[in-house]
Amino acid sequence: MRNKPTFKINIPEANLYILIIGIASMSLLFYNFYLGCLLFFIFLYLVYHNWKLTNIRKKEWTKYIQNLSLDIDETTKKAIMNLPIPLCILEFDGKISWYNNKFHHMTEKENLLGINIDDIIKNLDLRKVLNENKEMYTDIKYKDREYTIVYNVIKNDQENNAKYLMMLYWLDKTEYLDLEKRYNDEKNSMMLIQVDGYDDVLKSAPEENRPLINVEIEQILTSLEVSSQGGIKRTSKDKFFFVMNKKELKKLESEKFSILDKIRNIDYANNLPVTISMGIGIDGDTINENLKLASGALDLALGRGGDQAVIKTKDKFVFYGGKSKAVEKTTKVKSRLIGHALREVIRESDQVYIMGHKYPDMDAMGSAVGIYDICKSCNKHANIVLNSSNESIDEFVKRMKTSDYYKNIFIDHEDAIKNCTKNTLIVVVDTHRPNFTECQELLSESDKVVVIDHHRRGVEFINDTVLLFHEIYVSSTCEMVTELVQYMENNIKINKLTAEGLLAGICLDTKNFAFKTGVRTFEAASYLKKVGADTIEVKKLFNSEIGDFVTKAEIIQSAKIIEEHICLAYTSTEADNINIVIAQAADELLNVKKVEASFVLGMKDNKVFISARSLGKINVHVLMEKLGGGGHIDIAGAQLKDVSLQTAYTMVKEIIDTCLEEEE
Question: What are the φ and ψ backbone dihedral angles of 644, each rounded to 5 degrees?
Fold first, then answer.
C-alpha cells in the first residue's frame, strides 16, 4: 500500500502569531467595535515592528557575511604569503607578477617583480605547460637543492577579459633524496669470491713459495675489507664470502675492480697466473635473494673464463675484467665422467636429436656427427636437425649424403618438432644460448637436454639441462666430443668421415692450431689422425671459390687502422657465405704488423654479420657481447638484424673508441 503524499507549509512562528492576532481582531469587530479596533491597531504595530526587526537582522547578517569574507580574504592572503613552500605567479611571457616570502628566500634576490623567470632559473619549458593545459611536474636543481615544480594554469576574469596566469609551486625534496641516497648506499651487497684453479696455481709454484701465495691473496682481500669497511670470511681453501655496502661497491666499479689486477700481479715464480672470480648480488628484496644473485653471478663469471667480477641484480648483469685467457686443465677426469653419464642418458631415451647453432660451421657440424657416432655405438637412433646447409658445411654435408653410413641422418625442423616427445634427448653442441640454436622449439618439447659447448658463457643460457659439459678453455666443441669418444668406457669406433669432420672443426676454431691450442688439442688431433682422418681431405673442406678471394681482397683494401693496432673493415658485396668470408678476412688482417685485433662486417638477407679476431690483448668477446654476440677472448662475432651496414659500422667504431678510452 502506497503512502499518501504529505504537504508542509513552512511559516515562521512570529508571522503565524501575528496572522492569528489579525484574524482575531477582524472577528472581534463584529462583537465589540472599540475592543476590536484596539486589537487591530496592536496587529498593525506588530506587523510594522516585525518588518523593521527583519530588516535590521538582514542588514546585520549581510554585514556579518561581508566581514567574514574580508576575514577569509585576509586569511587567504596571509596563508599564501606565509605558505611553507616557495610560490610564484608568472605572466604568459614568463615575467614574475607575484611571489611569496619563501620564493624570495630561495632565490636570495631583490626586486623580482617583472623579471623573467629564465633569467633566474634556466631550462623551464613554460610553452609546453601552456600547450598541455594541465597540471605538470618538472624536477630541477637550483643552488644545490633539488625541487619538483608543480605548474598550475589559472584563469582570471577581469571586465569580460580573460587573463591567464601560471602558478609555480616549488617542492623541496632535497632531504628526501638525500635520505633515499643514504638508504641505497647502505644496502648490503653479497659477494662470493673464488680463486681460479687454486690447486693448479699452487702446484705451478716452488713448494717453498706456495704459502706466500696464499698469504698474499689473504692480505689483498683483507686490505679491501678494511678500506671498504666490509666483512670477509674464508669459507674454504679457495673461496671467500664478503659483505660490503653499495656505496663501497660503487667505488670498486669506478676503479673497474682494480683488485683483479692486484691479484693477477702476485708473482712467486708461479707458472700459472693467480686470478679470482667474483660474483656480486645486489638490490634483491631480501638478504637470501642477494645471496642467490651472487651465486648466479659467480657461476657466470666462472663460465666466462674467470678473472672477472660479475654484478647481478634482478634484471641485469654488469661485467668487469676478463682479461686473462682460461687456463687449460690437464686432468681428463671430467671428460670420462661426462662420457659415462652421456652414454646412460642416451640409452634411457627414446630417440636423439642433435643440433648446433644457426648457420652451423664445421665445429658445430663435426661435433654433431661425433655425437651421432656415439649414439650409434649405443644402438640408439639419432638425427641431426638441419633445415638448410651453407657454404661452410656444404662439402661435408654432400659427402655424408653420399655415404650409406649416414643414411637419413638429417631431419628438418617441422618433422623434428612433430616427432619430439618428452623422452627425446636433445643434444645441443657448440652453443649454450637458446635463441642461437638451430631449432629453439625443441628445447621446450623435451624434458631431456644436454649442452656441450666451449664458448664463454653469456647472459642467456639453456637452463634445466640433464647434463652440461661447458669448458671455455677448450679450443673447440669438436675437441670436447673427441675426448668423450676417446675416454668412454666402451671402445667406440668412429667413421673415417666423422673423424675428418671432428678434425676440421678443431682446425677451424684454432685457425690451424694457431689460436687456443693446448696439449689436449694436439692429443685429440693425434687420436683422430690415428683412427683414419685424412688431413688433405680436411683441407679440401675449406677450399673457397675465386669470388671469395676477390671479396677478401676488397675487405683488406677497405681496412682502416685505428690507433695503429686495431683493424676495422667491411664489404658491401652480398654472398651466401659472407659470414665465412669475413671471418677469413678478419684472420688475414691479424697478419698486419702491430695489429692486435680486427673487426670485419658483411651483409646478407637484411642481416649484418660481424667477425672479430684478437691476438689476446684485446677481449673481443666483451666487445661483441655489447652487440648481442659473444665467443671467446680472441675469436668472437655478432649478428645485427634490420640495421644498415653503415649503421652497424658506426656502432662497432663507437664500441672500439670506448674500449680505447677505457684503456687510457
Answer: -70, 160
